[in-house]
Amino acid sequence: MIQCIADFFKQLLVFTQIGILYILYKLNYISFHFFVKNTCIKLTSLSYYYIKIFQWQIQDKYLNDNELDEFFKTYTNHVPYHNNQIDYNLLNNIILYAKQNNDKLTILNDFQPINSGTIALVWKGTLNGNQVAIKIIRNDIENEITHCVNVTCFLLNLINFFTFNLFNDSSSNIIRENETNLLEQCNFHNEVQNIKLFYNFYKDSDTIVIPNVYQYFTDYNKKIIIMDFIEGLNASELTNEDKTKFAPVYNFFYNDSIFVKNICHSDLHIGNVVFIKTSDNDYKIGIYDFGLIYKLTKQESKKLFKFLTMLTNNNRRGVIETLVDFSLLSTNKDKQNLLVECLLTKDIFLEGRPMDFQEINIIFQEGYKHNLKINKNTSAILLSFISSIYLSKIFADNKSITKTFKNFLYNDTIICN
After folding, report:
1. CB under 8 Å to 35, separation ≥6 — which residues?
2. Domain match, 155 and 291 both
3. Whether the predicted pLDDT of 392 surpasses 90
4. Count of beta carbons in the 10 Å neighbourhood of residue 145
5. Do the domain assignments include residue 119?
6. Does 42 fall in a domain?
7. Does 120 reside within a domain?
8. Residue 41, class by beta-carbon neighbours within 10 Å (0-12 exposed, 13-18 middle, 19+ buried)?
């Protein structure tokens, strides 16, 4: 009990410090970059999940900012972790289990993880001489996620009370909705089935590589996934020439999976894509991390395609109408129409410049004010969409969001009939 009270006041102190930083930023005493970086340092002292939540809230800003873009990349595959989050006994047990099955499993790099993600840590090893990736869930991760979400929502409401809504009113609702998505990634049995699904879709592809998964390890222990290791480059290692070659391959995968196969990878960020150049000068991409997958209906695929098209054409009314219809739950069409007309009167939607994520966030914020909440299914699709657009920025010559959309959507796009 005493420890819980101490933890609460520690987190309250950190959130108060962040609130003060925010006020100083709004008063132009500190820069936005200083505010973001120092906020992340403070959040890291509590838990990485706070940083993840913070990223969701400012995504419209850092997607257009190269300095912050690079700053957040450091958290992609190198998420801070503690040794008490590693189950070393389990690592040794899976070696013995493999031996019992007449297989030889070795773990390389002196048992040090090669990647650390939000949910799991990854080791490199060999299974019967073939290179494999060994993914093991962090200890007590589900409780940490739930604790972070609960405390974050409470403190946001508390800070809002004393600072007259310093944070957006919809912040707590958005965080609550994405708690389910984070917890879903802890279910390795589901992820194994998702890997197998994508593997069967693309096993004969000349350009898309999905790792083969060894399911019997997950059947032995639900905290483990062992799959083939995909050797290749990360995005920061690509030359400009490489980018022009990989762009159509990546765009094909995204468009083909959603608009043809009607399934979306909802966590397709930069750390989950491997870029492969073969000796024959062929260009392929490897895909990892299938914890968040959503199977779309044909109707959802069509609506998403319509939304993308409206966005690339900067059709503001079309974007608003499609997004409200697609994303916000209500049996009352009059409520939706009222929201659309209300949004169109706002100054930011009357400007002629290309639309960005700030305006899309406003659509959702106003939706909450009209008691229209995001459809859970749509939330998974939007996570895929936003992370994919973020990744597709590396292929765009012009870093504006609108031109990135056009490069992303119309380069080797599969047409949705």
Report:
1. 21, 22, 24, 25
2. no
3. no
4. 20
5. no
6. yes
7. no
8. exposed
pLDDT of residue 414: 38
Sheet with 273-277, side-by-side order of all strands? 208-209, 283-287, 273-277
Report pTM.
Answer: 0.77
Start-to-end CA distance of the chain, whole Å, equals 59
Q: What are the residues whose beta carbons fall under 8 Å from the beta carbon of 151, sequence distance 6 or more?
A: 8, 11
Single-letter amino acid code for the residue at 63 = L
The pair of three-digit structure tokens given for residue 202, joined into one six-digit string:
């693309």
The 3-state DSSP class for residue 16 equals helix
Number of domains in the chain: 2
Structure tokens at 356: 């960005």
| Structural domain for 296, as ranges | 232-417
**Full DSSP string of 128-191:** TTEEEEEEEEPTTHHHHHHHHHHHHHHHHHHHHHHHTSSS-TTHHHHHHHHHHHHHHTT-HHHH
Question: H helices within 164-260, ranges in order?
Answer: 171-184, 188-202, 215-220, 240-259
Verify that 296 and 396 share a domain, yes or no.
yes
Which residues are within 8 A (CB) of 330 and not within 5 positions of it... i.e. 6 or more apart?
336, 371, 372
| Tokens of residue 120, six digits | 């799991």
CA 89 – CA 79 distance, rounded (Å): 22
Residue 90 has pLDDT above 70, yes or no: yes
pLDDT for 157 equals: 67
Residues 148 and 12 in one domain: yes
Supply the mean pLDDT for the chain. Answer: 77
Residue 204, in any domain of the structure: no
Token pair 């972070």 is found at 148
3-state class of 374 per DSSP?
strand
Structure tokens at 190: 């589901």
Q: Decide if 328 contacts 372 (C-beta within 8 A).
A: yes
Say which amino acid occupies 115: N
d(CA 312, CA 354): 9
125, 296, 310 from 264: Cα distances, Å: 29, 7, 20
Question: Are the CB atoms for 211 and 285 separated by under 8 Å?
Answer: no
As a whole number of angstroms, the distance between CA 23 and CA 352 comes to 30
Give the whole-angstrom CA distance, residue 28 versus residue 221. Answer: 52
Say which residue the tokens 């049995």 belong to.
189
Which pair of structure tokens corresponds to residue 65?
A: 């900012």
User: Distance (Å, rounded) from C-alpha 344 to C-alpha 174?
Assistant: 23
How many C-beta neighbours within 10 Å does residue 45 have? 11
